[in-house]
Amino acid sequence: MKNARARNTPLGSQFKLSKDQCPKTDEDIAEMAKVPYASAVGSLMYAMVCTKPDIAHAVGVVSRYMSNPGKEHWEAVKWLLRYLKGTSKMGLCFKGKDTVLRGYTDADLGGCKESYKSTTGYVFSVGGTAVSWMSRLQRSVALSTTEAEYMATAEASKELIWLKNFLEELGKKQPDSPLYCDNQSAIHLGKNPVFHGKTKHIQLRYHFIRGLISDGTLMLEKIRGTENPADMLTTVVTLDKLKLCVASTGPQVAWAGPTSHRRQGHAAARKGGKGAVAQGCLAERPEGRG
């Protein structure tokens, strides 16, 4: 990969990865066993956890095939490595303009064509720079875009609570923390705790967000889909959209050296499969949190 050409996006739109591309014959399996797929994905996870929220979705996708990767999966990993080559000298920069916590959440509908589960994506920033992010498949199949977005918002609100408490322990008092969503119906569902025939099947665990809104823990606000930085955590985006998302999650500056920005990271990642998680946070969680 030393002389490989750099790529502009984490994952090309031509990649349509699935289990159908996994090797099925003993010969193909033996051939792919020679490929350092797991170690390469592990290296990508390390970069994602520390300072690269822009590759979280791509890492989550390639992680699903760690148990039996195929040639197309390996091509996607190499593409991702080429993207890192082109952005290796870039990192998050904290300007210290404020300490306000802001969250952005998004979901695609049925993004996984094998399980038809949707992808939850969220990113939280402090002072305009990302401090926590995640991309992973939802636990159950959503029946509508509203349901998928609502489930993603509920998942993000749990992270918001932890980050808010963490910042306040550091003496950084937080006002009503905004959580931005680009689906008006999901926002309406969270702010209006009334019975809806079309949403009565949504599990109770997702409705706790209503209490957080009513007691002022968070403010669920609308953001345009074209301006939502969490979009890069749920789907493959164009170069222009990627630039907007990256710019919205913090200034990107060249590192002065490997010791100039020391951060601790936490990753929650299973050994591949449908539930593979790509998650990063610049604050180390207590044991068992993740």
Automatic annotation (TrEMBL):
Q: Where is the composition biased (Basic residues)?
A: 260-273
Q: Which domain of life is it from?
A: Eukaryota
Write the signal peptide boundaries. Answer: none
Q: Where is this region: Disordered?
A: 256-290
| Protein name, entry field | Reverse transcriptase Ty1/copia-type domain-containing protein
Which organism does this record belong to? Mikania micrantha
Q: What is the lineage of its organism?
A: Eukaryota, Viridiplantae, Streptophyta, Embryophyta, Tracheophyta
